[in-house]
Design goal:
Layout (H helix, E strand, L loop, with lengths): L1 H34 L1 E7 L1 H8 L20 E9 L6 H18 L6 E7 L9 H9 L1 E5 L22 H12 L3 E3 L5 H10 L5 E2 L16 H9 L3 E4 L3 H4 L7 H13 L6 E3 L18 H10 L4 H18 L5
Parallel strand pairs: 1-2, 2-3, 3-4, 4-5, 6-7, 7-8
Helix pairs in contact: 9-10
């Protein structure tokens, strides 16, 4: 009898310890999700939702509205991607279709969804369309995708050139209409032209460091410093191909790009631009509900909570605020 009672007591102790550990784990998880703020400079969720014919709340999406509910504060830049092959009225129609979906479904969204456009082909070579973009509420225009458009050449164009005459005029018109310039996907000559012409801060919403991963889409040190020097921002992206040349990218690789940019005096420049729903990402960061793992990883690397919050939220937020955008 005594042996049986002893076994029962030991079993009960184990269950109590396990229960206590689970409660502690849940508190930590809950804390990270509820008190963490996240400002994502780029995702392709609208395009994927249209392609899959689902709601923006559908949990099959990496950055679904539903999955943002545990953040204390969330601001997401939802891009309308314009394929390189679309031109003129077709490009504009594609934009309007995407705008209508986002505008309709964000009405009951408790956080903030910012409308952006990825691809200058949306303008159809017409400067008047820039004012129309402003009227639609567009806050960022990625000047090119990988190919060529009326603005200039993307990073995928062989023998690439910089801004066209139309592109140079578009830069000035975009800034006058308070639409931020994004040089993600831009060719190096186009980047250099933007540096010469732009009179206001610009950004790269989803690009990593070429010194860490030598992919054509990543930024050289000189390019990062040029953005930093005009008080712009750079969103480190989770895209596997931009994180690591070989396969098997993980959270550590995202951290390597963040840490490298910080070493270039980028503490006020580095942000996050996930590219959720537009790229293959590390398994441990497979959707927006897993972003806290990177946040937690940086804390464990002895970065202060204040610094980590800057990267995940404040740097992007402050960029918008100091350039006249209120939320």
């Amino acid at each position: 009898m005594t042996h049986t009672v002893t076994q029962f007591i030991e079993s009960l102790k184990k269950r109590l310890v396990f229960s206590s550990l689970m409660k502690s784990y849940k508190k930590i998880y809950f804390r990270q999700m509820v008190f963490m703020r996240f400002f994502d400079l780029h995702c392709d969720t609208v395009h994927r939702a249209i392609k899959e014919k689902v709601s923006l709340y559908d949990e099959m999406l990496c950055a679904s509205f539903k999955k943002t509910e545990y953040f204390s504060e969330y601001i997401g830049c939802f891009a309308v991607w314009i394929p390189d092959e679309l031109r003129g009225p077709n490009a504009w129609y594609f934009f309007e279709k995407s705008y209508e979906k986002l505008n309709r479904e964000k009405r009951n969204f408790k956080h903030k969804a910012i409308l952006t456009v990825e691809g200058g082909a949306v303008l159809g070579g017409e400067l008047k369309n820039i004012k129309k973009l402003k009227e639609f509420g567009v806050k960022i225009l990625t000047l090119t995708w990988n190919g060529r458009c009326e603005i200039g050449d993307g990073v995928g164009v062989d023998g690439s050139k910089g801004l066209t005459d139309f592109g140079a005029s578009a830069i000035k018109e975009l800034q006058e209409n308070e639409i931020f310039i994004d040089i993600s996907h831009a060719s190096e000559p186009l980047f250099e032209d933007v540096c010469q012409i732009a009179s206001k801060p610009f950004m790269s919403t989803h690009s990593n460091s070429k010194s860490v991963c030598k992919h054509r889409r990543n930024l050289t040190d000189k390019q990062f410093e040029a953005i930093r020097n005009v008080n712009g921002v750079v969103g480190v992206t989770f895209c596997n191909d931009f994180l690591k040349i070989s396969k098997g990218a993980d959270i550590e690789d995202v951290f390597s790009h963040i840490e490298y940019f910080l070493s270039l005096s980028g503490e006020d420049t580095v942000c996050i631009g996930s590219d959720f729903d537009g790229a293959e990402v590390p398994e441990r960061l497979k959707d927006i509900s897993k972003v806290y793992k990177l946040y937690e990883f940086m804390l464990k690397k002895n970065y202060s909570e204040q610094m980590v919050d800057k990267i995940f939220f404040s740097n992007a937020y402050n960029f918008f605020k100091r350039n006249g955008q209120n939320f």
